[in-house]
Amino acid sequence: MRSSMQTRWTGLTLAGLGALALSAPVRAQKVGYFTDFTPGDAGPVGAITANGLTPVAINDITTFDFASAQIVLIDTVPGGLSLELQNRESDLAAFVQNGGSLIINDASATDSGLLPGGAGVSLVPLGAFDPNASIVNVETASLLTDGPFGHLTGADLSGGNSSVNGYADAATLPVGAVSLLSDGAGAAQSVAFSYGYGAGSVLYTTVPLDFYFSDPFANDPPKTNFVTIFAPNELALAAVPEPGTVALLACLSMSGLTLARRRSHRAS
In sequence order, what E strands does 25-133 have? Predict the structure, then answer.
């Protein structure tokens, strides 16, 4: 028979590890935020501060030192990227390579060069009246849809005009990428995915958050869900826990796996 200590640790690591991760403290991180063509847009600030992070407006994308932030959040608008943003693509890649977290909400869905290490990703923009643009499916559970600010189903994010502005051909995603959301066409058309690059990470979506943040007429059904749950969950996914917390969770996870193996062995 297992001791009560073994029982408690098994339950904590295997059933409660996710809850621990959600409540884990994060480093005092700065988030540089920028909306292409409208750098004064403060829409992301609420989502950033809700996570206890410090917002830093990127007023001039041509000169901003990405290394001064731990997370960089880029929102684009339909129709393509500004030349100024395109000229910083290699600098953003270096930022992630060196350990930074990059979030891109790409309402343009036209330039895969914005994705560090993702030049081979095939992006396809969708028109506002494309039926797939208003439908969102959850492909993989993550903090994006099951985070500290709430749970979201595909239905919670569907019904917008548009909920997503394009998709990435899932077959062309970077090696190791995980597709988190797809559009109405199904898994082949990823509208949110994440992957590691160098020492850092990338979260990419085709959700037009600039529209939901700033347009007073963006009263489509999912608006509140995008602004109050989806956006802050993005930051929770990108934020890096304190090093001590990471070590603790890793230790607990290994302990749980060991005890689970013992339990399986005894049952066999």
Answer: 30-35, 54-57, 71-75, 101-105, 123-125
Please report how many Cα atoms fall inside a 13 Å half-sphere around the Cα of residue 145, on the Cβ side.
20
Confidence of residue 61 (pLDDT cuts 50, 70, 90): very high
Determine the straight-line distance between the first and last CA of the chain, rounded to whole angstroms.
15
Rounded Cα distance between 34 and 44, Å, is 9
pLDDT band at 40 (very low <50, low <70, confident <90, very high): confident
In contact, 138 and 181? CB cutoff 8 Å: yes
**The overall pTM is greater than 0.85:** no
Question: What pLDDT band is residue 236 in, cutting at 50, 70 and 90?
Answer: very high
E-only strand ranges, 10-97: 30-35, 54-57, 71-75
CA–CA distance, 216 with 34 (Å, rounded to integer): 20
Closest CA to 201 of 173, 147, 240, 244: 240
Which residue is associated with the tokens 């959850």? 138
Task: Identify which of 78, 37, 44 has the alpha carbon closest to the alpha carbon of residue 206.
Answer: 78
Q: What is the mean pLDDT of the chain?
A: 84
Rounded to whole angstroms, how far apart are CA atoms 201 and 138? 20
- pLDDT tens digit sequence for 200-233: 999 999 999 999 998 766 667 899 999 999 999 9
> CA 2, 18, 158: angle at the middle one, nearest 5?
145
Helix axes 4-15, 243-267, angle to 10 degrees: 120
pLDDT of residue 128: 77
Q: How far apart are CA 224 and CA 220, in angstroms?
A: 9
CB atoms within 10 A of CB 14: 17
